[in-house]
Amino acid sequence: MTIPQLTDFSEQALDAAFAAVRGEAEAAVAASGFDAEQFRLDWLGRKQGHLKAISDAWLKAAPVDAKRLIGQRFNLLKDEVEELINRAFAQKVADRLLGIKRGLDVSLPGRAQRIGAEHPLIKTQAEIVGVFQRMGYSVGLGPEVENDFNNFESLNFPPNHPARDTQDTLVLAGQESKPLRERLLMRTHTSPVQIRTMLEQAPPLRIVIPGKVHRNEAADATHSPVFHQVEGLCVDTNITFSDLKGTLDHAMKAFFGSAVKTRFFPSFFPFTEPSADVQISCIFCGGKGCRKCKHSGWIELLGCGMVDPAVFEAVDKRRIEMGREPAYDTRRISGFAFGMGVDRIAMMKYGISDIGLLYSGDMRFLEQFA
């Protein structure tokens, strides 16, 4: 496109010049073999577009008193060219859709949508939670980034206590200026949700808490720095260890089958006293002894115990700091807690030998459970 030099800057001469340019644009759109994308590049290109050339030749070189008249007409021309381009592209889309519609054969079979399946971890976790929901427990959830008070201090892990070594923590950077109890970390268990719930609610409480937890552990066939837990808390008046045993025995039978037996061994956890490890009779050999149970007939599955009074005292102290009434008088209430690893149960249930497979995202592995 050749752009003539302007010598007459009267309104009539400017109207005629811009009308000629507009006519060239409309003629290009009406020409056979019109290419909308090439037209857009030719007219709106930032370096060599026709509108850029017109601006340089007419607007920049015009006398000061003519710049306003040229600018008004230039903006109007630009809007008209953009409208031509928009209509051209809209027509191109309409033509394409019309071609698709004409070529549609409704007698062809449709494309079947592949139906997904729950991840074995999510499925196992949901089944465990469902067992306790049917027993009247509500589900509690909380953040994976916690403060030290909820994750450790309130659960009877005082600073520098050796019990913290068993839960090597991933601490967020830049927390040194905060008080220890306010420093943020990746939670090492779902127990902080128990604390959060007790800070918000008075007893009675019956909650089951599923979720992801993090520990600074080396990955191998049976360990992962990320894994899942399901914990539970029951607080009321006259809660005893017998209630705990009956609850877990019923839960294990509901999940693994009525033939499963349970037994309890003394153990230690900072937040429960007394504490116990729970074993179930081997689900693979029925308690006769096999490689899965190391020929003992039993498989250790979870930990539990009666809530330590120090935990209730820490909660009440915190409630007072928050301006709330204390609600966990150890002379009146008691409770039990338990926790189990979802990953290990899923590996047992589905015969998975390497925990890393659960987090690999390998579709060849996951499709086996569809």
What is the compact description of this entry?
The protein is α+β, with helices and mostly antiparallel strands and about 375 residues long.
Overview of the molecule:
The chain has helices spanning 11-30, 36-44, 50-59, 64-102, 120-133, 148-151, 191-200, 241-256, 309-321, 342-350, 363-366, and strands at 138-139, 145-147, 184-186, 205-214, 226-236, 262-269, 272-281, 298-307, 334-341. It is an alpha+beta fold. Helix 2 (36-44) packs antiparallel against helix 4 (64-102) and helix 5 (120-133) packs across helix 10 (342-350). The longest helix has 39 residues, at 64-102.
Please specify the SSE layout and strand pairing.
Elements: H1 11-30, H2 36-44, H3 50-59, H4 64-102, H5 120-133, E1 138-139, E2 145-147, H6 148-151, E3 184-186, H7 191-200, E4 205-214, E5 226-236, H8 241-256, E6 262-269, E7 272-281, E8 298-307, H9 309-321, E9 334-341, H10 342-350, H11 363-366
Helix pairs in contact: 1-4, 2-4, 3-4, 5-10, 7-9
Number of strands: 9
Structural class: alpha+beta
Helix and strand succession? HHHHHEEHEHEEHEEEHEHH
- Computed over alpha carbons, the radius of gyration is 36 Å
**Morphology call:** elongated
Keywords:
single chain; 370 residues; alpha+beta; seven-stranded mixed beta sheet; two-stranded antiparallel sheet; elongated
